[in-house]
Amino acid sequence: MLIAVGPDAPSTIKRDLALALNSTQAPATAPLPQSQQQALDKLRTLLASAWQQINGAVPTNDELDSLIRLLSIIDFNLDGPDRTAAVETLVHVTEAAADALAAFAAVEQLCARLMATRRGTNAGDLRQALASRGVRLRAAPRYRPDVDRLRNYSTRVQAHLTQYEETRIGDVEIKIERDCTAATVDAANGGSLVLVGEPGAGKSAVVSAAAEHLRASGNEVIELAVDHLLVESLDELRITLELEHGVREVLENWPGAGPAFLFIDALDATRGGRSEAVFRSLIAEVLELPGHRWRVIASIRTFDLKLGEQFKNLFEGRPPSARYVDPAFPRVRHLHVPRWSDDELNQLNTGRPRSQPLSMARAVGCATLLACRSTRACWPT
Q: How far apart are CA 207 and CA 49, in angstroms?
C-alpha cells in the first residue's frame, strides 16, 4: 500500500511517519526517536480501529506489524517535476500519447473526489472512469496480445459475413439495406437479443450490417461465426481463437467504458453437438460480466430456438419491436428477420443492369426468394 502526500502535508506524515516505516521495515533498527514513535503509534491506533470495524475483532500485534510492513510513503508534488514524470509514465498506458496529460488530470480529479467522500477505488473502476472521460486506454499488458488477436479474428469473420450482404448481377454489386437492420441496431443498444428467422431469411446479412453500423458509431464490436467454430469446450474455443486467456476474461479486461457488442452468428450450427453447450456457456458468462457493458447479439433459426429452451432462457425478456416479433417467443428478447419485403425486392430489381437477368445464385436471401412470394416473375429479363 502506498500513501502519497503533497507539499502541504504535515511533517508528521512526510518526515516522522515515513522515517518510522522505513526503520520498522529494516532487518534491524535502533529505538525510534520520540516524534517517529508517536507517529507510528498513531498509525497503529487508526489501523486497529479500521481492522476491528471491518473484521469485528481487535487485531493482534503480529497482524498490525504484518500490515505496517506493507506501507510506504512518498512525497509527490502535483505541480512539480513529479507530475511531469507521471504524465510521461501514462504515455505507455493511453492509446494516443497526447491523451496522457488528460489522463493524469482525470486521475487527479477522481482522487480529490474519492478523498472528499472517504471512498476508494480499484484498477477496473479507475479504467472505466478514465474511459468515461474520453481517455482511451490500452488493454492491460497481460491481456493486450489477446485483445489484438480477438480483434484480428473478428475482422476475418466480418469479411466472411459481409458477403451475405452482397448481391452480384454480372459485374454489378448491389447492397440492400434491410428494413430490420435499423431495428436490430436500436435493440442492441438497449441490451442483448437474439435474431430469429427461417433458413435464407438473411439473418447473417443483418448480423453483418448491424455490426458494421455499431462499429461505425465508435463501439467495440466482435463477430464470431459458430459454423466456423465447432469446438467441444471453452478451452478448445480459446485455443482455436489463439488466445492465452478465455474469451470471458479477455472481454472483462477489454479497455473502454462504452457499450460493446459480441455478435454470434448461426447458433443453429451447434444443434445436437457439444458446441451447443460451449456457446450457451459463453453467452451466459458474457451476460454475467460486471457492469453489463458487453451485449450479445446472436442469430438462430426459428425452429432451433423453439427447441432450445436454454437459449430462450438466456435471452429472456420482452421483444423490443412490435414490428419484428415472432408470436412464438413472447418472453424472449428477440427480433424476427422476415422474408424480403416488396420494397426490398424492388431495390434489387431497380439496381440491376437492365441488360442482365437476375442471377439467383449469389443473391442475398436467395433461399427465401425461391421459397416465398411465389417468385412472381419479379425480374423479367
A: 56
